[in-house]
Please model this.
Amino acid sequence: MQKFAISDVFCPKLFTSLKHYDKKTLTQDIVAGIIVGVVAIPLAIAFGISSGVGPTEGLITAIIAGFLISFFGGSKVQIGGPTGAFIVIIYGIIQEYGVSGLMISTIMAGIILILMGLFKLGNVIKFVPYPVVIGFTAGIAVTIFTTQMNDLFGLGITDAPADFIHKWMCYAEHWQDVNWWAFGIGILSLLLIIYTPRLSKKIPGSLVAIIVMTLAAWVLRTFCGVDSITTISDLYELPHGMPAPRMPEIALKEGQTMINLIQDLFPSAFTIAMLGAIESLLSAMVADGVIGDQHNSNTELIGQGIANLVVPFFGGIPATGAIARTMTNINNGGKTPVAGLVHAGVLMLVLLFLGNLVGMIPMACLAGVLIMVSYNMSGWRTFLWLAKNPKSDFLVMLVTFVLTVVFNLTVAIEVGLILAIALFLKRTNEMTVVRSFSNELDPTHQTDIRLHGQDLEMLHIPAHTEVYEIDGPYFFGIANKFDEISRRIGKDDQKVRIIRMRKVSFIDSTGIHNLEQLYLRSKHCGIQLVLSGVNQHVFEALDKAGLVKLIGRENIRDHINGALARAGEIVGEKIATD
Model:
């Protein structure tokens, strides 16, 4: 038995990268880390506020989680922190369970991610269907866009409903309260974000927008008497240093136990873990294609898990790998996880020394930043492209999208995955074919085998014998399909039933049970069951289940010639085996 070694699943890229580290690489990492740190400032603040916590929590998450993901992660260039994908789920948890519920959910998600890495599930996450990913990503983008209307138009709503439909109804009721100063700042922020890259791709448009609009708001307030522009400091208390770690304050409802609370929060924790795993591994895969490296999926999951396990104790929110910041890191010369550590250090300096300046940022400007984030997340081109693909894929994406927008991300992921699995099983069931033969059998059917350029002769099937061929995996859907066919086809004088399994790559418990029932029914009718072409994997499964002993080893043959010869023995007819 092979021994488990922690190094098989946990080998941080930081430690391997430092083995051949030099001064040139250090310089590149420092420059990249500073730039990506500057880019992360507005995003961390905006994601914190939109999630229902505050700017401090966003910055703390970017600092602590960003540091830990770079320190323990499995990618050389991954940059971690809060992302737009979490806004919806975080906001929903806080609305229902409060900040303490969010802390517990994030800790549980961290544990789930660590366990996923330890059990080597890193590669499994990559098999989440593409339509599901696109559906909930587009849904999140629409939800983020919706949440920013209050700040973009300066409506001043303090108790906006959480769900999509009622939120828009609330906006419609307050349309007469539009603050045109706030709206102007929001629109100008969007224009700066859009057009700055045309002048310089190295300067992030969101940072330019924040600097220019913060200065504009200060001038309007100080010299023009315009005091209706809401800033961060008007709504949130800004920190003066890093907060000390603290345990979550758990307030249980009457009659509720800690176990009940954990059970209630588990679906949300699982959604956070799945979302974090999918986004971080997708980001790492994209980065691999650019830098020509290969990340360690399991190590990356463990690194993400450690970050999410630790950050709640400092008041932070869920974090994962961020594709935009990771690409910024790569494009500015980042080579190793050291760049991610530098990025965390830059954010730490902002938190410690620039808190007063952060408080002057207009909320409408942050709304502009997040609207641009939602546009980039929406993937509307991919959405339209999928509409031209198979209708079933588009249906999965559309259902996931609608459920994300109208209900919540947890329901969307669950239903989307169930739909995708159901469609996969349907397609597999349609692809697998069961055939029957009763007189002659063509050995070259659906194969390219030829003998000396000539077709092989037709194989004679003995009297009182029928051959059934299963072309495809023998799992629960196909097992029942084969059962229905075997019940319909047959003759009253049948004595041997050959099941040709050369194309059966695997068999599950339902298939084994189905095969056992077929044997028992056949035996009851005086029919002998013979198996042909059973591969080693399927044979071992049958042997463990006791079917080899039940059917008889002499009735399980390696190829069809042997099976036909065995049928001939049973019915008393000599069959050539050459």
The radius of gyration is 31 Å. The domain at 433-446+458-571 is CATH 3.30.750.24 (Transcription Regulator spoIIAA). The longest strand covers residues 465-471.
